[in-house]
Amino acid sequence: MGDQLHNPVIAPQGSGRAPARFFGKIRTTLEMIKFEHSIFALPFALTGAMLAERGLPSWRQIFWLIVAMVGARSAAMAFNRIADLKYDKLNPRTQARALPKGELSVSFTAAFTALACAMLVLAAWELNPLAFRLSPVAIAILLGYSYTKRFTLVSHLVLGFCLGISPIAAWIALRGDLSVSVLLLGAAVTLWVAGFDIIYACQDVEFDHRLGLHSIPKRYGIAAALYTSAALHAGMLALLVIVARLEHLGWIAFAGLIVVAVLLAYEHALVKPSDLSRVNAAFFTINGYVSILFFLSWAADLLIY
Fold first, then answer.
1. Are 190 and 104 in contact (CB under 8 A)?
2. Half-sphere exposure of 214 (CA within 13 A, CB side)
3. Which domain holds residue 283?
4. How many degrees, rounded to 5, is the angle at CA 250 between CA 245 and CA 251?
5. Is residue 81 part of a domain?
6. Which of 19, 172, 237, 268 sits at a 20 to 30 Å CA gap from 259?
7. pLDDT number for residue 37
8. Is residue 52 in some structural domain?
9. Are 238 and 211 in contact (CB under 8 A)?
């Protein structure tokens, strides 16, 4: 007995470290795909859902919509990091990402992508049969975007469409059909995302020239690209006004659009052809505010009127 007290059993070296390493990789993956920026698409998906229901969906529907959106964006972002790995290794702006640095393996990231796709399919199954049948199409669009910059400068619009389908998908999930309003809402989101992606792409003009990648800033120059971005955002606002009128929304929704317009104007004021130092503020911070304030104002309008 004394020997047992003074010679406790020693756990094998490394015991308990495997779960810690696994969850560490998950944390690194979420940081790599900027998981917190799921906020860009989620408010528009929820707006589509609220327009479909003319109010709040059930909590069960909201839960599975969130699962679907998180799965969709996580799959798209993780797969994009795999597809762009050879470019990220060469681009000084992206060399510090987890995959180029070797902090994550391609196989682990691929498994994470597959899991995120499974989340999307499961959520679609729980929502309705049409959403489930269309889920492979959504996955093909989300993953296929990663290759578009190799051959077309409209990759910005393809990325926009990846997020633009979010309110359309939410409507389908709840109603099992489509309407002109939600199609226009999806088009508005497409223009919004394409507009701010063009701003973001201005940082990589020299790199895109060197590697033969395609973008509007590379093709037409930064100044023209910024004008194009502003035009797309003006088009977004015009479409949202049409949607608000078609859905007979009240003054709260239109007040929200005025605030969104002011935020977008400020976003464009932050970035100039001669000064791209505030691109990240324009890209991440302002657009996060845009999506949240848009949702809050339209949700309030739908709930009150």
1. no
2. 14
3. 38-47+57-304
4. 115
5. yes
6. 172
7. 67
8. no
9. no
Determine whether 144 is exposed, middle or buried from the number of CB atoms within 10 Å of its CB (0-12, 13-18, 19+). middle
pTM exceeding the 0.85 threshold for the entire prediction: yes
* CATH number of the domain enclosing 69: 1.10.357.140
Total domain count, the chain: 1
Count of CB atoms within 10 A of residue 281's CB? Answer: 13
How does pLDDT run across 74-120, given as a tens digit for each residue? 999 999 999 999 999 999 989 888 899 999 999 999 999 999 999 99
In sequence order, what are the beta bridge partners of 275?
Answer: 272
- Contacts of residue 168, defined as CB under 8 A and 6 or more positions apart, other chains included, come to 48, 178, 182, 183, 185, 186
**Structural domain includes residue 254:** yes
Nearest alpha-carbon partner for 28 in 104, 105, 100: 104
Q: Is residue 233 part of a domain?
A: yes
Question: How far, in Å, CA of 112 to CA of 123, rounded?
Answer: 17
- State whether residue 272 is helix, strand or coil: strand
CA 241-128-67 angle, 5° bins: 75
